[in-house]
Amino acid sequence: MYQGACLCGSVKFEIEGEFEHFYLCHCSYCRKDTGSAHAANLFSKFAKITWLSGESDLKVFRLEDTRHNKCFCQHCGSALPVQVNNSAMLVVPAGCLDSDIQLKPDANIFVGSKANWDNKLEQIKAFSGFPE
After folding, report:
1. In whole angstroms, what is the distance from residue 93 CA to residue 30 CA?
2. What pLDDT sits at residue 86?
3. Burial 78-94 (b: 16+ CB within 10 A, else e)
4. Which class would CATH give 2-115?
5. Cβ proximity of 63 and 71 under 8 Å
6. Domain residue limits, the chain
7. What distances in angstroms separate CA 81 from CA 89, 118, 123, 129, one per listed residue?
8. Is pLDDT above 70 for 71?
9. Where are the beta strands (DSSP E) in 27-131?
């Protein structure tokens, strides 16, 4: 059982079941909808989601002629779980979970379209908070 919520706390959910895959997606769609180098998404064909609160605050954007879907809170914009094109596939942005997950990413995908600045990021300085 996993629990999660949006940033403002309006939307809360539980997920029962396990994830089959954990991918870091570098495609241009995921980079644009996260504003980052990649999306970190968990995938399951069998897990079930229960919306505990705020289901009416959800918005879903489906990019026409693609399989790209994004569910988000209409108040704070946080990425939230989505059923892909009304299929059994549940895609869960890893960052919206409040529960710890034991999985590590399986793979980086769509690296052929990754950002040109997304290279050897583990080699740059790291701070536990804002730099002084």
Report:
1. 11
2. 66
3. bbbbbeeeeeebbbbbb
4. mainly beta
5. no
6. 2-115
7. 10, 25, 32, 28
8. yes
9. 39-44, 48-53, 58-62, 69-73, 79-80, 82-83, 90-93, 107-109
- For residue 118, give every residue at least 6 positions away whose Cβ sits within 8 Å of its Cβ, in sequence order, or none: 26, 37, 38
User: How many whole angstroms separate alpha carbon 32 and alpha carbon 40?
Assistant: 13
Cα separation of the two ends of the chain: 39
Contact 62, 68 (CB under 8 A): yes
Cα–Cα distance, 84 to 88 (Å, whole number): 7
* Amino acid 44: pLDDT: 94
Give the closest residue to 34 by CA, choosing from 73, 97, 79.
79
* Backbone phi, psi, residue 60, to 5°: -120, 130
| pLDDT over 90 at 121, yes or no | no
Q: Identify the band that residue 132 occupies on the pLDDT scale cut at 50, 70 and 90.
A: confident
- Per the DSSP assignment, residues forming a β-bridge with 13 are 4, 51
Task: Answer whether residue 63 shows pLDDT above 90.
Answer: no
